Amino acid sequence: MQDAEPSIIGLFPLGMVLLPGEVAPLHIFEERYKLLVNERRDGDEEFGIVFGEDDGVRELGCTAAVAEVLEELDDGRMNILVRGRRRFRLVDLVQPSDPATEYLRGVVVFVEDETEHAPPELERRVLEAFRKMLVLMEIESPSDPAGEGPLSYRIAAAVDFGAALKQELLESLSETDRLETLAAVIEALLPRLALRKEREEAIRGNGKGY
Question: Looking at the structure, do residues 90 and 137 belong to the same domain, yes or no?
Fold first, then answer.
């Protein structure tokens, strides 16, 4: 589903994917993106983060709002935290007259899931696999992903599955499909994580890998 009325927002192409509800750090150093952030840092305005690749930017992105300015340097560079808000689909790009000092803009429509809820048994399956993964990764004080919003986004924000998988999840308009994808990915990882843990324990135990 998507809103019919398009909007124009500032865009920040990055080699990362931001999900709704996810909090992520950004280091701002280019003049055009200093401008983009400064125009929105004191209010509730959003800008768009899109996954940039060699051949351009992906069509589906996520808006972000400045959650906190962690550090501001004398030359204007900033370390900030942003929080993902809403997904959008790029309809068109508005190129800046001076790309060095002005940021890219996009004509976008905002999109929502076609269905809101996934089957409870699927959620339980994914959470069980997620907990096993954390244990095998030897995460201290493992816990279920906190926050609001779809479980799929909270899990994908909690563990680094890579930009390609996160973009796939961002583009899906079904929480059921996203959770099924995560279940398959995590369950495929578990045997490899278990083997790695066994080898590490063997090395710690006798100094040999056998």
Answer: no
